[in-house]
Amino acid sequence: MDKHPSIPGAWAEQHALPNQYASRLLIIDGGSGVYLSDGAGKRYLDCASGIAVNALGYGRDDLAELMAAQAKKLIHISNLFANRPALELADKLCSASPRPADQPWSAEKPAGYFKAVHFGNSGTEANEAAIKYARAYHYRLGRRRKGILAFTGSFHGRTMGALSVTATEKYRKPFEPLLPGREFAPFNDVPALQRKIGGRRGRRYAAVIVEAIQGEGGINAMNPDFAAALNRMCRESGILLIADEVQTGLGRTGTLLASEAVGLEPDIVTLSKPLAGGLPLSATLLSPAVADRVAPGDHASTFGGGPVTCSVANRLWDEITAPGFLDGVRER
Predict the structure, then answer these.
(1) pLDDT at 97
(2) For residue 149, what is the DSSP state?
């Protein structure tokens, strides 16, 4: 096969990508709706959505026009300045549910569950930011808490901090030693959780990070009893609760956040994958208690929250939160 991807129907047999990818890759040239197509015009039903990314499908003229219009005005400005699409998106995300554990639950779900949003580029960056914010929170309270508790079957990313709280050994082994102070407990095991963070034992932990539905770990759903135990024990021990909603957030499971369905009440939520409809964008949502203890220079991202990506993310948010949209997701 010709190595050049411009050849119709070609497979990439000789490519300059690292060996972590397959030696033979199918070249996708286009897409429409839920279908992809190669250079020969063969169609494929995309059951993976670009690994949980393309929430609104392929070939959307409205998104292409939105990107082009924003790109003509401003592509990049850095976070030394503000841009309107990012400010608008941050306001929308701060209204996301569920309410953090440090605020009383309200059935009306008014705006203000979260106070601040950090924008990055990927899910692993969002989780890196969450770990940093958790440690900064305790540091500003004068606490020497460094520990992070994660769970068997977890997957939180491939950069060093996120990888440290990813349980699968094959991902971690080549890169050890990783972040010190992280531990793992059995998922959905309330007695084991009690042994880890119950009472005074929990005071060594800065945060617990968990997925409401584990993907990499084998599609394991959190049960409500475990969620309730996490809420209670984290609150009693002053531990921040981080919900990794990178794959499950923004309507994929029929609710805006998967945490809603099991009653999980996180202080920090991480989002990415479908957030900008196929463009790279992540968000780390901070409760007021955490946001109020962030200081200038604690964290930043050169490309995070760019005007083009945030313009698309605003459109995605408006669609998935429109009346009836999530009803259709639950039905399907």
Answers:
(1) 64
(2) E
